[in-house]
Amino acid sequence: MRIDIISVVPDLLQSPFSHSILKRAKERGLLEVNVINLRDFSTSKQKQVDDYQYGGGAGMVMMCEPISNCIEHLKKQRSYDEIIYMTPDGEVMNQKMMNTLSLKNSFIILCGHYKGIDERIRQLYITKEISIGDYVLSGGELAAAVFTDAIGRLLPGVLNDETSALTDSFQDNLLSPPVYTRPENFKDLIVPDVLLSGHEKKINDWRHEQALERTKTRRPDLLNEE
Predict the structure, then answer these.
(1) 73, 98, 121, 200: least buried by Cβ within 10 Å?
(2) Are 108 and 80 a contacting pair, CB within 8 Å?
(3) How confident is the model at residue 161, as a pLDDT?
(4) CA separation (Å) from 40 to 43, 99, 226?
(5) What is the spatial distance between Cα 193 and Cα 197, in angstroms, rounded to a whole number?
(6) Shortest CA distance to 145 belongs to which of 1, 8, 18?
(7) How many C-beta atoms surround the C-beta of residue 47 within 10 A?
(8) d(CA 133, CA 94)
(9) How far is C-alpha 100 from the chain's CA centre?
(10) Where are the domains of the chain?
């Protein structure tokens, strides 16, 4: 899978892709992540990428030309399955969405800044708009990192135990059950006997019951989804 991320501040994305699971995915050749500096595609001497918005109002707007120049440059080199804009008013990201997108091969992710991007870029280029939650960040870089992490861990061969992703929260619209490790007794709190039984069916049944109960208590809305 290839993910090309367009950013005004590419340095923000150095650390998230240099550690842990995403680093492993890159080293194994399963995920290629490239961060492109949008200012490199500005035609002004000052490398300007934003301007005042028509109609007045607070906040600058990311300009059409640099974004268009960058996307057109990338598209000349390869085709992309999706051109994604990370924006608070996009479709809220969830596990079902990531499962579906993980079957695709290539993405451009555009990170917004300031008051957002010129609407014409959304009309001309963007194929999918995604939000990571009902709040506003200073820019789309952190959202792009969240997207990349969420999709990268689903790629076959990235996790050492590929069944781990299948038991994560939100798979099958359930939250994950409680988990335990050593010691067996910690401050008089004991690991449930069933987990020590070695009986696989009883353990799986217990985990399903616990996941269902936790979902009913914390996120009942998930049980109403198809």
Answers:
(1) 200
(2) yes
(3) 65
(4) 8, 33, 45
(5) 6
(6) 18
(7) 14
(8) 10
(9) 13
(10) 2-152, 167-224
CA–CA gap between residue 218 and residue 47 (Å, rounded): 48
CATH number for domain 167-224, candidates 3.65.10.10, 2.30.29.170, 1.10.1270.20, 3.40.630.30: 1.10.1270.20
- The residues, any chain, with a CB within 8 Å of residue 160's CB and separated by 6 or more, are none
Residue of higher predicted confidence among 49 and 225: 49
- Whole-angstrom distance, CA of residue 147 vs CA of residue 177: 24
pLDDT band at 220 (very low <50, low <70, confident <90, very high): very high
Rounded Cα distance, 170 and 183, in Å: 28
- 32 near 1, Cβ under 8 Å? yes
* 20-27 vs 141-152: helix crossing angle, rounded to 10: 60
**Which residues are registered as beta bridge partners of 83?**
108
What distance in Å separates the CA atoms of residue 8 and residue 31, rounded to the nearest whole number? Answer: 22
Q: What's the pLDDT score for residue 171? A: 75
